Amino acid sequence: MSAVRGAEDRHGSAAAARAMEGVGGHVGAPHEMDTILDVRDLVKHFHVTTGFFGSATAIVRAVDGVSFSIRRGETLGLVGESGCGKTTTGRCILQLEKPTSGQVIFEGQDLTKLDVAELRRVRRKIQVIFQDPYSSLNPRMTVGQIVAEPMAVHGIVPEARRRHDRVRELLSRVGLLPQHANRYPHELSGGQRQRVGIARALAMEPSLIVCDEPVSALDVSIQAQIINLLEDLQSEFGLTYLFVAHDLAVVRHISDRVAVMYLGKIVEIADRQTVYEDPRHPYTRALLSAVPIPDPVLEESRERVVLRGEVPSPLNPPSGCVFHPRCPIAVDRCRGEVPPLRTLGPAHEAACHLA
Amino acid sequence: MAMNPTVEHAAEIERPAPRSGVRSAIVDFCRRRTLGALGAAVIVLMLTVATFAEFLAPYDPVANNFGAMLSAPSRGHWLGTDSFGRDVLSRLIYGSRTALMVGFGASVLGATLGAILGVGGAYFAGKIDLVLQRIMDIFLSFPLIILALALVAILGNTIPNLIIAIMIPMIPRCALVIRSSALSIREMPYVDAARAAGFSHARIIMRHMLPNVMAPYLIMLTAFLGQAILLEASLSFLGLGVQEPLAAWGLMLRGAAVEFAETAPWLAIFPGLAISLAVFAFNLFGDSLRDALDPRLRTQ
């Protein structure tokens, strides 16, 4: 754990340094509350047809009223089980999915209201790193073409010769060799491909990067390298990350703040320390108690909150608090009344009647 | 492919984009898919003959020789002459030019337009896709030959019109197949990445989706080549295709060939053989190409 602590310190001071110099071209001394992204009451429902003739439609409430904001230069970790809507939230922010309702306000602009041309310009500023390094690169393009394309299209580096140099510079920056530019994705390993994905995102000179489980498809040893790379790049370019993941250790390592999702809703959001050391929502507690401790003696005495049952279907979420059927401390009130996110402390909110 | 340690090593060191694979792929194709390679050989032969028709044909394909009408195959006329005394071999050789021109023109255009419509439909999805699909369904409800016949009747029978008439019925057939594979490409993260990068629809379709449906495209293309040649021959046979005195295989089968089928069978046999051989070759090659490009069927 000590290695992680050390990294946290380094990370923390880097964040402080960024706050001092003012990042992303905002020289006018942005203070702590400079919000880069504000998600307000985001809802994404998918309509699925059921029944023999596809006549009956049902609604999957993938994201059901999610609100949070991210400050410039910080990393917000978004954790939850598979199917809880964390990836869909990321895709709605990227405008890859059209939200059913709600606002995604990026640098003061509501992305859901922009027309195609305006959106195209803003897209440059919000980039994405995908989970699967094997399918996130076009197999018919060389690494060089993949990284150069956004620079050409957006006129970031208009001259072909300079672009050629810039591609090699970026590849070196993410830990690849300049010669890799001539390779095709299938000739690279998973970790190398993920680096190409990062270089492609960096080529756009973004300010926000949505990392959609960027390391969960990689070997553990490679995971650490990629995480370190992401942290280095963050301090170097003043990037802001929305880090979507299900791996609690990884999220704890990289995040400044953490939001926990369950069945399309945020159940708890706080700074990292608070979430991991003083979780208030019973779901967060259960989630954290599932993390094994890498010490056989401590592991023996570890207390586990084992949840009963399965995650309910988002097709038909439970009434009241969506967590109540599995909650170890649920009372009658939880069945009828939806708990709002309540402020429990400085920058600590949880959606539980009993927290 | 045999393990080659030097190549394995070179992968880790600097090297240009791979090229060496092409030759070994061709050798592999010939060894593994003999019938397909045979088809390819016939296609290459046809291409050569069509290209060098002027040098290969022993006679002018339109020159009448009334002294040698309907003469049987002989040393002077290897495949005999027709009712105007024209050399059948020369007409076959020039006919391959017509067949390939119409065949390639129609199938390349048809498959390409079909691919663009199919990928476009898959990419835009929703209403655009729905409308495109229904239009395709309307075209699909006509048999190939009937639609081509109607189009030639409307457009008139010059070679460019013939190409258009044969191409149009092919578009929906190709669009259908390409669309289904484009639908899966549409869900690939690299297409999401391209959308997130703010690329235009045209760029995403042309650069990121079309190259990845190359395999079904090539298969449809070769399959249609045979069909297009057959269709051209059929149209010519029905009198709505290439017009006399131009040399075309279908044309050689009609008129005098029917009249003199018993006394001069070579008039019908040789063009018929040429058509069969060409269609057979393209189909064999297309089938093998499909197998070779399908990674699930690739052994080892």
State the helical fraction of chain A: 25-40%
Q: What is the rounded Rg of chain B? A: 23 Å
CATH architecture of chain B: Orthogonal Bundle
Mean of all residue-level pLDDT scores of chain B? 84
Text of the CATH class of the domain at 2-47 and 58-125 and 206-282 in chain A? Alpha Beta
Number of helices of chain A: 12
Cα separation of the termini of chain B: 8 Å
Q: How many DSSP-defined strands of chain B?
A: 0
Broad structural category of chain B: mainly alpha
Say what oligomer this is: heterodimer
Q: Mind telling me the CATH class of chain B?
A: Mainly Alpha
Spatial arrangement of strands, main beta sheet of chain A: 6-7-8-3-9-10-12-11
What is the CATH third-level topology name of the domain at 2-47 and 58-125 and 206-282 in chain A? Rossmann fold
CATH topology of chain B: MetI-like fold
The CATH architecture of the domain at 2-47 and 58-125 and 206-282 in chain A is 3-Layer(aba) Sandwich
According to CATH, the homologous superfamily of the domain at 2-47 and 58-125 and 206-282 in chain A is P-loop containing nucleotide triphosphate hydrolases
Sheet-strand content of chain B, in percent, reads under 5%
Structural Rg of chain A: 21 Å
How many structural domains of chain B?
1
Largest inter-chain interface? A-B, 37 and 24 residues
> Which ranges of chain A are low-confidence, i.e. pLDDT below 50, for 5 or more consecutive residues?
1-32
Which characteristics define this entry?
heterodimer; A: 355 residues; alpha/beta; Rossmann fold; eight-stranded mixed beta sheet; four-stranded antiparallel beta sheet; 35% helix; 23% strand; globular; B: 300 residues; mainly alpha; MetI-like fold; 14 helices; 0% strand; elongated
Describe the structure.
The complex is a heterodimer of chains A (355) and B (300). Chain A is α/β, with parallel strands linked by helices and 355 residues long. Chain A has helices at 2-21, 86-93, 116-123, 143-153, 160-173, 190-203, 220-237, 248-254, 272-277, 282-289, 296-301, 332-336; strands at 35-50, 56-71, 75-79, 101-106, 109-110, 126-129, 208-212, 240-245, 257-262, 265-271, 342-345, 348-350. Chain A has an eight-stranded mixed beta sheet, with helices on both faces. A four-stranded antiparallel beta sheet of chain A has the order 2-1-4-5. Chain A is globular, with a radius of gyration of 21 Å. Chain B is 70% helix and 0% strand. Chain B has 14 helices and no strands.
